[in-house]
């Protein structure tokens, strides 16, 4: 198993010293091109076909510092992700996460993994909603975490990488397709966050779960979500998964859901599944959503109690 870090800190430094007109192309080549296979699978154009069209840079700029803003202004956040100790922690998290599956007898068909950490844009509404930390690990072999470095996000980088590694393993077993359902998304996010807390503890629970209280879960999220598990299409799924505020930012119709409703619901659904079945989080990770949802029908009708 080969695990490689793309040292974004070094790339930011290179771009910082470049002339303004060179920054965009350098960023595209140095930071985005190593992930080319991922963009191709996701059908995100590497270079827009027309000016200001959608491509990897436009997608990057939703949450991360944009290439033209990589100036001496970013010295402070950059310093926070530039130490050997920081990258060692990241490397340990990815290695530990993937090894945990192998040690449980789960075969990984992907043998090479590339990960990096991108500096978040403090003016990004979607990143701010996530308390300045986020990740992307749905394409096996590729893991990206985004953060605005501070005392809340830095201690959580390992658990966020563990969360993304869990997606990486799941989608080596579960065939991703465009008709993916809300049920699969809730299960997958619930598995990822349960795996992160399994490795790094409840106190590092992500904001996408920690910000939801038990009353909201039982009285708003579960009753409104339980009959929507078969919906497909991101315009339908995202408002339930991420909540109304983010749905509006993405120009989707709100459905009366609080922040990260699907994540919080998924987290407690998987806890229920693990308690009901005695399955390990590693086994559950490669189990089809249909099997998990069939075993947790009562979850939707019972009030969840927090077991912290």
Automatic annotation (TrEMBL):
It comes from Paenibacillus amylolyticus. The lineage of its organism: Bacteria, Bacillati, Bacillota, Bacilli, Bacillales. Residues 86-293 form the DUF2268 domain. Pfam families: DUF2268. This is Uncharacterized protein YjaZ. It comes from the Bacteria.
């Amino acid at each position: 198993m080969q695990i490689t870090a793309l040292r974004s800190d070094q790339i930011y430094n290179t771009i910082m010293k470049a002339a303004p007109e060179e920054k965009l192309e350098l960023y595209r080549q140095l930071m985005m091109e190593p992930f080319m296979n991922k963009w191709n699978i996701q059908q995100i154009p590497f270079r827009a076909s027309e000016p200001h069209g959608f491509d990897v840079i436009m997608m990057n700029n939703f949450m991360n510092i944009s290439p033209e803003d990589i100036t001496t202004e970013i010295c402070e956040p950059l310093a926070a992700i530039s130490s050997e100790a920081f990258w060692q922690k990241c490397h340990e998290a990815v290695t530990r996460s993937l090894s945990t599956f192998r040690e449980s007898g789960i075969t990984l068909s992907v043998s090479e993994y590339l990960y990096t950490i991108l500096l978040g844009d403090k003016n990004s509404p979607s990143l701010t909603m996530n308390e300045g930390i986020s990740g992307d690990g749905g394409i096996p072999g590729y893991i990206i975490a985004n953060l605005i470095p501070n005392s809340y996000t830095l201690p959580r980088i390992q658990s966020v990488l563990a969360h993304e590694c869990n997606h990486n393993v799941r989608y080596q077993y579960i065939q991703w397709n465009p008709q993916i359902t809300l049920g699969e998304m809730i299960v997958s996010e619930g598995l990822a966050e349960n795996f992160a807390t399994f490795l790094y503890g409840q106190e590092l629970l992500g904001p996408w779960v920690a910000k939801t209280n038990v009353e909201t879960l039982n009285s708003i999220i579960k009753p409104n979500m339980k009959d929507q598990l078969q919906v497909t299409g991101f315009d339908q799924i995202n408002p339930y998964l991420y909540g109304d505020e983010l749905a509006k930012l993405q120009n989707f119709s709100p459905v009366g859901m609080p922040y990260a409703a699907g994540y919080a619901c998924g987290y407690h659904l998987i806890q229920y599944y693990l308690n009901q079945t005695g399955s390990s989080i590693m086994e559950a990770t490669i189990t089809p959503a249909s099997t998990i949802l069939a075993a947790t029908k009562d979850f939707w009708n019972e009030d969840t109690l927090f077991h912290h």
